Amino acid sequence: MINRLLVANRGEIARRVFRTCRELGIETVAVFSSADEGMPFVRDADAAVHLPGNAPAETYLRGDLVIAAAKAAGADAIHPGYGFLSENAAFARAVVEAGLTWVGPAPDSIEKMGSKIESKKLMEAAGVPVLGSLTADTATDADLPLLVKASAGGGGRGMRIVNALADLPGEIEKASSEAASAFGDGTVFVEPYIQTGRHIEVQVMGTADGTLVFGERDCSVQRRHQKVIEEAPAPALPDATRKALHEAAKAAAEAIDYRGAGTVEFLYDVAKDRFYFLEMNTRLQVEHPVTEAVYGVDLVALQIAVAEGRSLGDVTIGEPQGHAIEVRLYAEDPAHGYQPQSGRITRFELPGVRSEFTTEGHGIRLDSGVGAGDEIGTFYDAMIAKVIAFAPTREQALRQLAGALAKAELHGLTTNRDLLVNLLRDPVVVDATMHTTWLDGADLAVLGAPVGGADAVPLSGFAAAIALAERARLASPVQSRIPAGFRNVVSQPQLTTFLRGGSDEDELEVRWYGGRSFRSADLDGVVVHEVTPEQVVLEEGGVRRGFQIHVTGDAVDVESSLGHVALRRKPRFVDPSSQVAEGSLLAPMPGSVVAVHAAVGDEVAEGQPLLVMEAMKMQHTIAAPYAGTVTELSATAGQQVEAGTVLAVVQSNESSEEEN
C-alpha cells in the first residue's frame, strides 16, 4: 500500500493528483523549483522539497534530485503527472531500483512506446493501421505535405509541417532543437501529413486482469499541433469506426502487456473513414477530465490501484453518460501568432464552478494551477487552467462552457479566453466538422474578436474614463465637491487616452464632457445613469448595462455583459530614455536567446532569420523587418532577456540611401 506519494511535477497536474490522494488518505509531497516556491501546488502538499534552479533541465527533469527528494521526505511512491519525466523509462527504472513504487507503466512499456519510430513498427506487427515512415533522403514531392515530429515528445513541440522538400532539412533541424530542449531527446521522424484529419484518442487502463477501455476523445481543434478543445465522446463518429478504434487501442496496449493509464492516439481520415496509429502516451493525459466525467471514474485513483497491484476486476464500464468538453485557457495572444505571455494574474474569477479537480455531477469543473496573485513565468507551459463542462448533451455542454468563459474575470495578462468562447460558438465546432488544421487556417481577427462585439471597446472605454475621473475627484485633497471634468466655459471635451494590448501604438481616445453630468462626445444616444470609481451604468438604445471597473496601477480592466476589455492608462509624459531607435528588434516576450544568425555589418534580406528565442519551451524566430544592414547586435546565445529588450538594430537600405 502507498502511504506517502511524491508528485514529480508542478502546477495543475500536481494539484489534481494531490486531490485524489487526500480522498484516499495518502500523504503527499511536492517538489518545486525556485520560480515555483510560492505557487498553490506547493501549499497543497503535506510536505515539499526545493529543487534549486528554475529551468526544467536543472529541476523537474533531474530524476536524481526528484528521487533524493522522495527519500528525504519519506515518500514510498512517485507519480510523474504528465510532461517532464512522465515518459522517461530511465527515470521509471531508477524509481523502482530505489525501492519506490512507480505510479505508471513498466519501464519496458515506456521504452517500447517512447520512440514513435519503434512504436509504429510494433503496432504494425500487432495489426494496428499505421502511416508510412520517411526520411529526408527517401521523401519525394509525391509525399508532400510532410510532418516532422519529435520521437519522444508531445504537446505540439518539436513538430513542423513541410510543404517543400527544400525546406525539409532546415525544419528537421528546428524540430530537433525544440524537442531536445523540451524533452531532452532531439530525435525526430518524418511521415505523410493528412491535412484534414481528425485527432481521435482512446483511453486505456492496463491491469493484470486485462485492458479496460474508457471510450474515446476528440481533440481535433488544435493550434500548431497543440490541443485547444477536447471532448468525450467523439462526435459525428460512425459506431463501427468507434468500435474499431477501441479494439485497435486494446490491441496496442496488449501488444506490450501494458499496465496503468495510457492513451492510444489515432489520426482519423474522415473522407475515407480510415484511421492510423499516431502514438501511445504512456501516462495520464491533460484531457483526462472529460473521460472521467462521462464514465464516472477517477483515473488517478485507478492508476494508484494498479500501481499497488490491486485488481480492477470489479470495475464495470457502461456506455458514456452525457457529454464533456474541456478547453485549455492559456496566457497567450492569438492575434500575434499565439505569442506566450507572462506576468501576474491580478484577478481570476470563474462563475458557476461546481467542482475543482473532480467531477461532481453536471456543471463546470475547474482544474488550475494558479489563482489571483500568481505569476505566469517563462520557464514552463503557459496554461492557466483547464475548464470542463459536463452536461446531458453536447449542445448544452458547448453553451454552458462558452457562457462560463464569457463571464470569467481574468486580469493581468493577455489570454486566449475570447478565442475559446468564439470557438465554442462557431458553426464548425457546433456541427463537429473540425479537423486538425482548421484553426491554423481560420481568421483569427474574427475568432479572436471581443465576445461583446464592436460596441464592447468604445462603451467600456467611456465607462473607464468617467470612472477614473470620479476616482480622481474623490481622492483629491481639495475641492473634491466640484464635479469631475467641470469647466466654467466648455470649449472642448475632456480627453482620456488608453493603450490596448501590449502595444504602445494601439491607442483608444475617449472624449467626454463632465460637470453636473457625464456624457460622451462620440457615442450618440448613450445615457449615463450611475458613476462610481468601481461601477458605471450606461444606457444605449433603451438597454442598460453595468460596467465594473478594476484599477491596478496603470491597468484598467472593464467587465460587463459585453465581456472583458483590458486597457492601460497612457502616461502624459514619456521618458526619452525609454525610446528605441528605428529598426530596433525587440524581444516579444521574456525568454532566452538560443541562436544568433547574424553579426554587426551583415547585409540582410527582408524576412531573414536573425535570432531565435525560446520561451515556455517553444522557439520563436525573429526576422529582419526589411532589407538592410545590422548596425547593432547586443544579444548573445544563452542570454536571458525581458520583454521589450532591444536585441538588434537593422538600418534599412532605403534610409541609408536617403542619408547619402
Major pleated sheet: 9 strands, mixed
Q: State the secondary-structure class.
A: alpha+beta
Low-confidence stretches: none
Q: Trace the largest sheet across and list its strands.
A: 13-12-9-10-11-14-22-20-19
Portion in beta strands? 25-35%
Rg on CA atoms, Å = 27 Å
Number of helices: 16
As a percent range, the share of helical residues equals: 10-25%
- Which of globular, elongated, flat, extended, rod-shaped describes the shape? globular
Number of strands: 39
Mean pLDDT: 91
Distance between the termini: 81 Å
Overview of this protein structure:
The protein has 660 residues and is of the alpha+beta class. 25% of the residues lie in helices and 33% in strands. Helix 4 runs antiparallel to helix 5 and helix 11 runs antiparallel to helix 12.
Brief summary of the model shown:
This protein has 660 residues and is an alpha+beta fold. 25% of the residues lie in helices and 33% in strands.
Topology diagram in text:
Blueprint: E1 4-7, H1 11-24, E2 27-33, H2 40-44, E3 47-51, H3 63-73, E4 77-79, H4 89-97, E5 101-102, H5 107-114, H6 116-125, E6 146-150, E7 159-162, H7 168-183, E8 188-192, E9 198-207, E10 210-223, E11 226-232, H8 239-255, E12 260-269, E13 274-281, H9 288-295, H10 299-307, E14 323-330, E15 332-333, E16 339-340, E17 343-344, E18 347-349, E19 353-356, E20 363-368, E21 375-376, E22 383-391, H11 394-406, E23 409-411, H12 417-425, H13 427-430, H14 444-447, H15 456-475, E24 494-500, E25 507-513, E26 519-520, E27 526-531, E28 535-540, E29 543-552, E30 555-560, E31 563-569, E32 584-586, E33 591-596, E34 603-604, E35 609-615, E36 618-623, E37 628-633, E38 640-641, E39 646-652, H16 653-659
Parallel strand pairs: 1-2, 1-4, 2-3, 4-5, 19-20
Antiparallel strand pairs: 6-7, 6-8, 9-10, 9-12, 10-11, 11-14, 12-13, 14-22, 15-16, 17-21, 18-23, 20-22, 24-25, 24-31, 25-26, 27-28, 28-29, 29-30, 30-31, 32-39, 33-35, 33-38, 34-37, 35-36, 37-39
Helix pairs in contact: 4-5, 11-12
